[in-house]
């Protein structure tokens, strides 16, 4: 299943699938601040990409929440991995929404600076970091839509790759509300 809308010269697309299989310029990794690999999306990307990704992450060292860094993609079908650290959800009263939006903006800024034409995002912070999916989807999609409307870039395709059918449905519903 695919849901998509046009924003200026870009297509914003939602798909259910595996982010490690995306043949785009860059995929975004929902990393931890130590850039040490882990579970969920982060672990899957490190396993599929091989040791080259971890070697670059070790050289970089850390990535604070709300920021992003870029590495090689190793053996992945994409060209680069943008690693961003979203917030651990603690009830929503500790600046989580601003940090989550910053994670998306920081990733998009790196994509723009590198002239990427296609970028794939997971649902950041909604796994191990426990951010409620509907709230996270609203922040993610609003941030991306605002960026595509206001920031001139070469991004032609911005794809959200959602691992579960439930997440795909939630993101589709939220996108439908934003697109009215």
How many H/I helices? 5
Give me the side-by-side strand order of the main sheet: 1-2-7-6-3-5-4
Shape: globular
Distance between the termini: 21 Å
| Element string (H = helix, E = strand) | EEEHHEEHEHEH
CATH architecture call: 3-Layer(aba) Sandwich
Radius of gyration based on Cα positions: 15 Å
Q: How much helix is in the residues?
A: 25-40%
List the helices and strands and how they pair.
Blueprint (H helix, E strand, L loop, with lengths): L1 E6 L2 E7 L9 E5 L9 H10 L1 H10 L7 E5 L7 E5 L11 H18 L4 E4 L11 H18 L6 E6 L2 H14 L2
Parallel strand pairs: 2-7, 3-5, 3-6, 6-7
Antiparallel strand pairs: 1-2, 4-5
Structure notes:
- The protein is an alpha/beta fold.
- Helices cover 39% and strands 21% of the residues.
- A hairpin with a 7-residue loop joins β4 and β5 (80-84).
- The two termini are 21 Å apart.
From the structure above, extract its key features:
180 residues, alpha/beta, Leucine Aminopeptidase, subunit E, domain 1, globular
Question: What's the quick description here?
Answer:
The protein is an alpha/beta fold. The protein has five helices and seven strands; from the N terminus they run βββααββαβαβα.
